[in-house]
Each structure stands twice: as C-alpha cells, then as structure tokens.
Amino acid sequence: MAMTVNPFRGVVFHWLGGLASGSFYVPYRGVKKWAWEVYWLAGGFFSWIIAPWILASVNTRDLLQVLGAAPPGVLLKAYLFGALWGVGGLTFGLTMRYLGMSLGMGVALGYCAVIGTLVPPIIHREFATKVLGTTSGQVILIGIVICILGIAVAGMAGMSKEREMTEEQKKSSIKEFNFFKGILVATFSGVFSACFAMGLDAAAPIAELSAQHGTSLLWTGLPKLVIVLLGGFTSNFIWCFILIAKNRTGYQYLSRRLRQGSLKQGLETGVAAAADPSAANAGEPRPKAKPNAPERIPMLSNYLFSALAGITWYMQFFFYTMGETQMGRYKFSSWTIHMASIIIFSSLWGIALKEWKGSSGFTKTLLFMGLATLILSTVIVGFGNYLAVLPAGR
Predict the structure, then answer these.
(1) Residues 269 and 36 sit within 8 Å (Cβ to Cβ)
(2) Counting CB atoms within 10 angstroms of each CB, which of 192, 272, 280, 293 has the fewest?
(3) Is 240 within 8 Å of 90 (Cβ atoms)?
C-alpha cells in the first residue's frame, strides 16, 4: 500500500534533520590532538561516502542498477552542484572570520534559504503558476518570508550578544572584522551553499528511477544523496589534502604520538563549517604540544568520535529526503524548513552549552523571538503544503 503524502509529517522529518545538523559538531569536541583537516576528512568519509552508500543500499531497490540507468547528464549536474555546495561550505569559515558568528550566519543563511528555495521553481518556470498563482503557494511564500525574518531576528540577537562581550572576547571572536569583505564572502558562501538544493532538484530523475524499481516513496531520495554528496566529498577532500600536505599532519591518522608544532592554527580552522553552517564551532583551537614531551594521540576515540560526528551530519539529509517526499507538489519548500531547523537546534545547543550565559534579558528575548518566528515559519510552510494535498472542494 502506497504511503499517503503528509506535509506535517514532512515538517517533523525536517526538524529531525535540523536536530542532526545542529548536533553533529558536538562529537568533534571529543577529538583530541588531531588537526582540523585530519578529523574533518575522517568524519567526512562517513558523512559523504560510507553512510550514504550503506543506507541507500539497505533501504532502496537495485541501487547500482538505478544509478547505472540514470542519464549521464543528470549524474553530472547532481555531482557538480554537490561540489559547488562543498566550496560554498568551505568559504563559510571566512564569513565567520570577517563578520563574526551571528552576523555571518544571518547573512549567509539568508542567501542560502532564499536561493535554495526559490531558484528550483524559477528554473522549472513554475514560480508564477505554482507559487504566485495558487493559495497554497502563496501561503508557502509567506512562510518563507517569515523564515527570513526569523533568521534576521536571530542574527540581531547574536549581534546584541557580541556588543555585550568584553573587548578581549570580541578580539578573540572576530579577529579580522571587515564588513565589506565579509558581505562579499557571505554572499558567495550563501549562493554556493544553496547548490545542494539545486543538486537534489537536478537528481530528481534518479528518485523516479528508484521508485520504478520498487523503492518505497519515503526512501526514494537516498540514491540522490549518493551522487550529490560524492561531489561534496570531492571539494572537501581536495581542500583537506592541501592542508594535510601543507601542515604535514597526515601522520596523525596512524601515529599515537603528536609531533611538536604539528597542530597549526590558521585560516583552515575557521572553515569547520565545510558541510553545514552549524558546524562553525567544530574547529576550536587545539592546545600546543609541550616542549620535549610528545603527547599521546587517542587514536581509537578520535576515529569513533569522528565517525559519530560524520554519521550524525549525514542524518540531516537522510531525514531531509524523507521530509521532501512528504511535501507533495512543493518539494522546493523543504529547503526553507531545513534552514530554519538548523538555526533552531544549533541555537538550542548553544543555550544548553551555556554560550548565552551572561547575556542581557534583551538579548535573550531577541533570541527566543527569533526561534519562535522560525518555528512558526516551518508550521506555515507545512500548512501551505497541506492545502495543496487536500482533495478538491474539501
């Protein structure tokens, strides 16, 4: 029996994806004595290669045959969009460097939400007829606008928090503040990060082929992830390989002892958000090795924490594709809900980890207003999709 499309069920799946995205960097806190590029690539193998292939193989029918039957042009576009998304994520760290966490995330995610949501229907020439020309489309558009408002309010909360910090805290948080450079980089990062949505849209024929081979509707998006994430893995692998060669940190994968001076801190530690904006906290500074006392590397726990972080990261899009299948004719609206969910859950983690401790009542009020607005936006977008699946005349 075929599953009935249920947009509100889809919203719940997207919330679960946002929870995974907002949580994945937490296991990286357990990684010790590894350089950023080392643990990011280790976790990336699980995020972009191992988890996608295993879960798609288990939950779908004839994965290799489906991918083999997909038009080469479809595979190429999905792969390239995935690679461009990886580049956008890598530059997200520069946004944090020049604008700070709150303003940087607000600008970059604002671009990402708008472009990733609206470009697919515009490309398919459906924006006027499907979005502007229908009640459900108009409700979804209202939800998108409210989502952008929520991102802006959450960004204002972050800026208010930064103003309340001491000068020493500000310098450690935003070492090279440059508004003009920051806006340019945030624009680049937001636009390219939205390519993930375009990649999934380009890979739609793969999902259709999977359904034809007998895959349940709920899992038809998993084969798409195999190709899009392969593109993301490529761009991240190239960057990490360059850093490993430059910093000579490759030995850390096999060595139980840390060489002196091998944990260099530079621009690369600021791009821990390579795969998702909520990862910006992952590249926290590492302690330098003590002179004449090589420190021991906890290899087993490092691999386990990296694997856990990588799998948790993948689960955001595992649930995303599940939610996408429940949104009916307006699958493109999934991207808005995903962006909102990321900010909601990453902010909740920030509260749980006491990152907002000491902030004023005004700042905390702004934060909760932003979170409430984002939650409201996901409900409105879900309602708009619900209107679209109601029987005619009901």
Answers:
(1) yes
(2) 293
(3) no
pLDDT for 390: 65
User: In terms of pLDDT, which residue wins out, 92 or 99?
Assistant: 92
Instruction: Describe the crossing of helices 135-163 and 361-389 by its angle, rounded to 10 degrees.
Output: 170
Residue 277 has pLDDT above 50, yes or no: no
Q: Is the alpha carbon torsion for 319, 325, 326, 327 positive or negative?
A: positive
Coil, strand, or helix at residue 354?
coil
Percent of the chain whose predicted confidence (pLDDT) is above 90 = 39
pLDDT of the residue at 273: 42
**CA 127, 130, 135: angle at the middle one, nearest 5?**
120
Domain boundaries, the chain: 7-389
Alpha-carbon torsion (311, 317, 321, 326), positive or negative: positive
Kindly state the DSSP code that residue 256 receives in the 8-state scheme.
Answer: S
Report whether pLDDT(87) > 80. yes
Alpha-helix runs per DSSP H in 124-221: 135-163, 167-173, 179-193, 195-202, 204-212
Q: What is the DSSP letter of 42?
A: H
Q: Where are the strands (E) in the chain, listed by range?
A: none
Residue 222 has pLDDT above 80, yes or no: yes
**What distance separates the 2 farthest-apart alpha carbons in the chain?**
79
Rg (CA), the chain: 21
**For range 46-67, the mean pLDDT:** 96
Contacts of 258 (CB under 8 A, 6+ apart): 33, 252, 289, 294, 295, 296, 297
- CB atoms near residue 35 (< 10 Å): 26
Burial track 370-390 (b if 16+ CB lie within 10 A, e otherwise) = bbebbebbbebbbbbbbbbbe
Residue 270, pLDDT above cutoff 50: no
Q: Give the C-alpha separation, 112 to 155, whole Å.
A: 15
Query: Is the pLDDT score of 332 beyond 90?
Result: no
Long-range CB contacts (< 8 A, 24+ apart) of 345-348? Answer: 345/15, 345/18, 345/19, 345/21, 345/22, 345/23, 345/278, 346/21, 346/22, 346/278, 347/22, 347/154, 347/371, 348/22
**Of 121-135, 190-204, 227-241, 273-287, which gets the smallest average pLDDT?**
273-287
DSSP-assigned beta bridge partners for residue 257? 296
Using 50, 70 and 90 to split pLDDT, how confident is the model at 393?
Answer: very low
